[in-house]
Design goal:
The structure is a homotetramer. The first copy, chain A, is mostly helical. Chain A has two domains: about 5-70, Arc Repressor Mutant, subunit A (Orthogonal Bundle); about 80-210, Tetracycline Repressor, domain 2 (Orthogonal Bundle). Helix content of chain A is about 65%, strand content about 0%. Chain A contains eleven helices and no strands. Chains in contact: A-B, C-D. The interface of C and D includes residues 48, 128, 174, 191 and 210 of C. Chain B binds a DNA duplex through helix 3.
Chain lengths: ~220, ~220, ~220, ~220
DNA sequence: GATGAATGAGTATTCATTCAT
DNA sequence: GATGAATGAATACTCATTCAT
């Protein structure tokens, strides 16, 4: 919040991801911090996690921590990053948007997203909870990424509707609801414990897709 | 060392709601505190809201505040209360469970819940975010109330399925998804601003119900 | 500490003890306060006892309390009073100082003091502990009263020494030690629990007197 | 929620006293805190001494204080420690218990204890006053140490009684009284100011011992 | 005299962040 | 880069005392 400091403050605006990024020991250290801190944020909440907690968890001296990150808030921002990118990359990689069959397109996408989200459910929950703490500038970026995912689904739905395979009145709204439904598990896991991972995935997929496909009304 | 306080500690054990409750000026004051504090929790988050903030917002002296509430946590608990009860009361009052037509039953219920939730969206969002801060004992109560609502919808869905009006594989899961979908607006309002209240309500209702009724798969 | 307020502030300088003192309902109330507060001071210590505690214990409204006493400190002062007077009165009443036999004089006095102190041991302990809180002016009075008792014993001892019945080098010192020894039980009761009241009284009396009488050295 | 602190919490469990303890600058700092705080406790009482007072007195920043101690109570506990150990160590070192002559044994012991107590009279007084504040667990330890001293004297007295040198009915009681008498000066110094240190020591020693030795009754 | 709400200064403790070494 | 002590502002909560009714 303070000010653009020196150089380090690439955190929010960063994503260097140059080839050498992971061989950079400083980057590696930063990653460790974010990972451990995220675990703590998940367990105790952002506000209740102290820098001392993070120092202890990472085995990095409290003062030294600040050689890698700028502020506690900074860690949260770094923690938020990268949770959408893998999703978008998967769409790219799998060439989903080039599929002809809308139904297959939808099914594959929904299944994949459900799986990805299920596996990082704790992080998702944390994000829902701690979003408010984000600095506005960073919040915008996060919301934009969320929007990107919604746009992808909007396209898929609109495409299927054009081909009369899907029956939705408003593709944008449907995409919003769909993406929201993907988070059912992270936000309600306390009530869904009786299902196995596979049971959940099947049920969720079926329920989500039915609303797009069916023409009942 | 503490001491058995006085009676005040009705917070977790429920507000009395006796006929005279609202004529009790102390009760009124407590209500004011909770209301103003809730606004602050919504705006800044629970942890970031200080007791001084609350004192300022209520125009009640900081020390005096503690004549009405026991602790900051206490205020949060009081704030959580009463958000589910109106829902359950409505079901009772309207005799929803006695309706014969499952479709009508479902439509009326979903519409009503969407409306109620839309109108307290900020409070709902706050609850999603601050749940972790709740003392375990109180958390249990809150989750139980949430469960009550799910149970009602589970009954409606199971009833309609028995009559072959609805087509769902797992009524419990469907009820969970349905109740979750009701919160679409509070949790994603930032992306749904382009819809008017009525537009949103119609779209949401249609989308939610379609997944229950349709037999496509 | 504040100031000599109105009239009420007779507390420290008081001892009205007029015939009507106890029929004065205000005085009665004050007495109740002091008695109950003393109990609390004994149990929890002066600093740890709050005015709210005292209000609860006396069933007198917190604000109303201040119609009878001036301050918390005031209560402590009132509590200190009157613990020496009964002792001095006993000496007067019994005509101890007029006895001829120094040994009998000493024995009767020591026994009586031991009994009196044993029966208010908690109050004595409290006084040892909370003396520091007393306002200097009042402290002086208390110490003076303590001194009065020492003086009485000094006279008895000096008298016995003159008659060659007692063998002490320094009657003033001996009196100091004697009066101090009287408080053995209040200050060390945790280690003397195995004695009955009578056992303790006998042992203490014997030990105290032996040091005065004997000529061994 | 707390967290297992670090190692610091050796307070109740005793200071390590390893050879290097005093070269440890942190230990030195802690010692400074305890020493300065003890002075304040003596002067103003524990409850009336604030952490800010202690910070000011030690010239250590208020927050920084907590890098060395865990709580205010912790300081009091640390302050209580070590006041009995030197006594017991002296008995060991001087081989007092191995002396044959009970009278010499008693005289040396009483003299030494009187001296030691005289020189820390303020601390002793403080302990009498603030004992109540101690956490029960720690209180037990303190009382045990007190008991150790009493036991030593009990042995000496019993030994002398067996040899018909001392004449006491109940060695345990006599030891209790004796140890109590040792504290005459700390608790009554306000009335003994007219004696020099040596005068006091001589008088006290004589008085205490006479009660043990003499067979008058 | 009785009530209970109000006041405001104070309390121990915490914590993100900085800095000298 | 690493260390751990230092900083100072903040935090929830308390309490003796006052005051309007």
């Amino acid at each position: 919040m303070k000010q653009a400091k020196t150089v380090k403050r690439n955190s929010v605006g960063r994503t260097p991801k140059t080839a050498g990024a992971f061989s950079d020991p400083a980057e590696k250290r930063r990653l460790l911090i974010v990972k451990k801190a995220t675990r703590l944020f998940i367990k105790k909440g952002y506000s209740q996690t102290t820098m001392r907690d993070i120092a202890r968890a990472t085995n990095i001296n409290l003062g030294n921590l600040y050689n890698y990150i700028d502020s506690k808030e900074d860690i949260l921002c770094l923690s938020f990053e990268d949770y959408h990118d893998p999703a978008m990359e998967w769409f790219e990689r799998e060439g989903i948007m080039k599929l002809d069959d809308p139904r297959q397109q939808l099914e594959k996408s929904v299944r994949r997203m459900l799986v990805m989200i299920y596996d990082v459910m704790n992080e998702i929950l944390m994000m829902y909870r701690e979003t408010r703490v984000l600095p506005p500038k960073f919040l915008k970026i996060v919301l934009q990424k969320e929007n990107d995912l919604i746009s992808v689904f909007e396209k898929i739905i609109a495409g299927g509707a054009a081909k009369k395979v899907f029956h939705v009145r408003d593709p944008f709204f449907a995409a919003n609801m769909l993406v929201f439904q993907l988070s059912l598990f992270p936000l309600r896991s306390w009530n869904l414990k009786k299902y196995t991972r596979e049971e959940y995935l099947d049920l969720a997929q079926e329920t989500i897709i039915k609303a797009i496909i069916s023409d009942a009304g």
